[in-house]
Amino acid sequence: MTKAKKLIEVAMPIKEISAESVRDKSIRHGHISTLHLWWARRPLPVCRAVIFASLVPDPLDLECPQAFRDAVQDLLANNPLYAPYPDIPYTSIYDPMPDNLRNRLLMFIGKFSPACQKNMLAGKTTPSKDQVQEGCLIKWESKNDPTVLRLARLLIWIAYNSELRPEATYTDLAVEFDEASKAITNTETALYYTPNRHLASPEVTAKEAALQEAIEKFQNRMPSVFDPFAGGGAIPLEAARLGCRSFGNDINPVAHIIEKGSVEFPQKYGKPITYTHEEFMTLYGKEGVKLYTENFGGMPTGNIEIPNRLSFDVEYYAKKLLAMTEAEVGHLYPADEKGNKPIAYYWARTATCSNPSCRAEVPLLKQFYLANTKSKKVYLNPIIHGTDIQFEIKEGSYDEKALPGWNKTGNLICPCCGSITTSKQVRDIQ
To answer: Are residues 111 and 139 in the same domain?
Structure first.
């Protein structure tokens, strides 16, 4: 039996994906790139679009299952949000896009907003956050949008199951999808709002098993996605977001830990949890009460519900470790007269001037800038009294001729007496 070509083999909204991928590089809050540095991160919009387009067929292919065509017709063709461009904005001629099921599917993946279309046709620019239309799969804001994610998962479900069961109708498969999704939601609610579910009990064990069974039943009817070189974890993350059974692997142990932190741990532990008041106090104490009040506006009198256990625990233990560290080494970070505390020390190797009458301890600095960009310039200004060298922090630029560095090709130029200590002498004195 001949299978229909996948959408990715026929067409992709490349311009739209590229635009959102450029924006993706500048997003910080909530982005996995802030979890840990990885030098070859793949943009999330690209991964999401590629995975989706690899799992659904081209609706115009003659071999495309009728159930999938009907799904696109019902879910996308009747929604003006996913109407094709009246005039493709990035071509140089009047170029209306045909209104067919393939183009509707492409517009669901990514479509320029009306304002962006207008600006592109007029040769104007649009802020990156406003370029791609709301409701598109690749949009950053769609990452947690239940409506968009349900559409994507349902289309993948129908595409996958209609190949296995060609006789199944769109309506039948949609009903089965809703039943499987609802089973997960119901068992999640039953487990997550059971007080003290972190403590083993027959009730908790039974509810955990019921949830796992519901998840297995759902994912058994969804395709599996495997990335053998997962790196920063973008592909496994986006596959899981689309409801697929997701696998990732990497020989690099750093990548492996990043993948666990960005894909596995949030799925396992980043869920709601309910504590009795007594259990909460046992686990978190007064510091936990303070944190809960800061985040949620006050402690309830009954059971205590936390929307995301992992997030709460990370913040709680981070603050606890910070307080313990401050108690141990806080005296090394004294506040100035304005109450400002240093957050870090700028360290430089020092050397002793070879002049017997000087013997000053001199930092081997080649220049004095702490920050030297177009938007910000901050430098260390030396204050020298005899052989004592101190610094003050100043904003702006300094005259590099009047204040040259004290380390020239390894030789020390003493700012106190002007003597030159050769690199060999520096090594010998040390």
So the answer is: yes
Does a structural domain hold residue 376?
A: yes
**Residue 203 within any structural domain of the chain:** no
CB 406 within 8 A of CB 414: yes
**Among 315, 68, 339, 306, which residue's Cα sits nearest to residue 192?**
306
Q: Which residues contact 262 (CB under 8 A, 6 or more apart)?
A: 32, 35, 232, 233, 237
Query: In sequence order, which residues have a C-beta less than 8 Å from that of residue 418 and are 6 or more positions away?
Result: none
Residue with token string 């806080």 = 330
SS3 310: helix
In a shared domain, residues 320 and 358: no
Two structure tokens written together for 351: 């050397």
pLDDT in tens, the chain (430 residues): 689 999 999 999 999 999 999 999 989 888 888 888 888 889 999 999 999 999 999 999 999 999 999 999 999 999 999 999 999 999 888 999 999 999 999 999 999 999 999 999 999 999 999 999 999 999 999 999 999 999 999 999 999 999 999 999 999 999 999 999 999 999 999 999 999 999 999 999 999 999 999 999 999 999 999 999 999 999 999 999 999 999 999 999 999 999 999 999 999 999 999 999 999 999 999 999 999 999 998 889 899 999 999 999 999 999 999 999 999 999 989 988 888 888 888 888 899 999 999 999 999 999 999 999 989 999 999 999 999 999 999 999 999 888 888 988 889 999 999 999 998 888 876 6
Nearest residue to 344 (alpha-carbon basis) of 357, 329, 358: 329
Q: Domain containing 365: what range?
A: 350-429
Beta carbons of 319 and 327 less than 8 angstroms apart: no
67's CB contacts (< 8 A; 6+ apart) are: 158, 162, 168, 169, 170, 172, 173
Question: How many domains does the structure of the chain reveal?
Answer: 3
- What angle, rounded to 10 degrees, do the helices at 309-329 and 277-296 form? 80
Are 284 and 316 in contact, with CB atoms under 8 Å apart?
yes
- 253 and 366 belong to one structural domain: no
**For residue 205, is it within any domain?**
no
Same domain, 117 and 264: yes
Considering the entire predicted model, what is its pTM? Answer: 0.83
Element housing 181 (H / E): helix 170-192
Q: How many CB atoms lie under 10 A from the CB of residue 255?
A: 20
426 burial via Cβ count (<10 Å: 0-12, 13-18, 19+):
buried
